[in-house]
Amino acid sequence: MSDPSPSTFKAPWEAQVFAMVVSLQEAGLFTWSEWTERLGRGIRPAGSPERAADYGAWLETLESILSERGVTRPEGVAARAEAFLRAAAATPHGEPIRLENDPLHRP
Amino acid sequence: MSHDHAHHAHDHDHGSDLSPIEARVRALESLLTEKGYIDPASLDALVELYETKVGPHAGARVVARAWVDPDFRARLLADATPAIAELGIGGRGGEHMVVVENTPETHNLVVCTLCSCYPWPVLGLPPVWYKAPPYRARAVIDPRGVLAEFGVTLPETTRITVWDSTAETRYMVLPLRPAETEGFDEAALAALVTRDAMIGTGLPKGIPAAPVEMPV
C-alpha cells in the first residue's frame, strides 16, 4: 500500500491540473470547502462504486465548475483538445506541441 | 534493435503522442490563459514549489522540535497552526492544522473520508493510496487491519483514534519519540520521522516493530 519513494506527480498533466485548481481557488473562483464538496460528490457517481480522489477526478471537477460558472463550455474545451491532438500529430517527435502546429489553426 | 529503430522512425514521421487527458488539460490551460484566469508562469512556479520544496521534511522538523522542546510541544498541541508558523512553515492547505499526539495508550490515524484533504505545508501532497477508496473507507471501519497492511502492529491494549481531515481542519500525527535517541539533535531526530509516521500509517524509524507475532 505504501510507496517508499513517492514523486509528487505521476505525470506532467497531473501537476498542471493541481496548479490550475490552486490558481483558480486563489483567484477566488471557489473556496476549498466548495472544492472538496464538489470533488467528494464527483467521486461518488450514482450507481457506481466510489472512485479515487485523484487528479483525473480533479480535472473532471474543475471542468464541471468552470462550465457551471460560464468560464469555459464543454464544447469549447473539446474543440480545443481536438486542435491539440491535431497539432501533436503534426509536430515532429521531441519538439514542443504548439497550437499553431494544428493544420486547421487560424490565428 | 532493428525493431526499436523502426519504431523511432515511425514516431518521427508521424508526429508526437498526446493522450486524450493530456489534450484536455492543455485545452483548459490554453483557454483559461487566453481568458486571463491563469498565468502559465505562476502555474510553473506552483508546480516547482510542490515538486521541490513542500514535503514531509517540513513536518519532520515540527515533530523533532516537539520532541526536544516541551514548551513548543504544548503550544503545538494547544493550537498547531501558530506553533508550526514559528518554524516558518504554513500557508495554503494549512490554514487550520490540528496535531494529535501518540502515547503508549493511544495511536492516531488520519484519513479524509470525503476526498483527499491533507495538511500540505507539513506533509506536501498526499500519496496515491491516501486518495483511494480502500484507505478512505477502511481506515474508519478497520483501522487495525489497515495498520497491519502498512506493517504496523500495535499492542492489543493500544487504542486507535481515527481523525477525519476536511478542507477546514487538517490533522497531523505527533508520533512517539523512538527509544534510545537521548543524544540526538533535532536534525538527527527529524531524519527518523517518515511521512507515514505523521499520517499514522507508520512509525518513526528506530522504533522496533511491536511484539513479534508474525502471521503464519
Topology:
The complex is a heterodimer of chains A (107) and B (216).
Chain A: H1 12-26, H2 32-42, H3 55-68, H4 74-89
Chain B: H1 2-14, H2 20-34, H3 40-53, H4 56-68, H5 70-78, H6 80-85, E1 97-101, E2 106-111, H7 120-123, H8 128-131, H9 133-141, H10 143-149, E3 159-164, E4 170-174, H11 186-190, H12 195-199
Helix pairs in contact in B: 4-5, 9-10
Structure description:
- The complex is a heterodimer of chains A (107) and B (216).
- Chain A has helices at residues 12-26, 32-42, 55-68, 74-89.
- Chain A is mainly alpha-helical.
- In chain A, helix 1 crosses helix 3 and helix 2 crosses helix 3 (55-68).
- The radius of gyration of chain A is 17 Å and the shape is globular.
- Chain B is mainly α and 216 residues long.
- In chain B, 48% of the residues lie in helices and 10% in strands.
- Chain B contains 12 helices and 4 strands; from the N terminus they run ααααααββααααββαα.
- In chain B, the strands form 2 sheets. A two-stranded parallel sheet of chain B has the order 1-4.
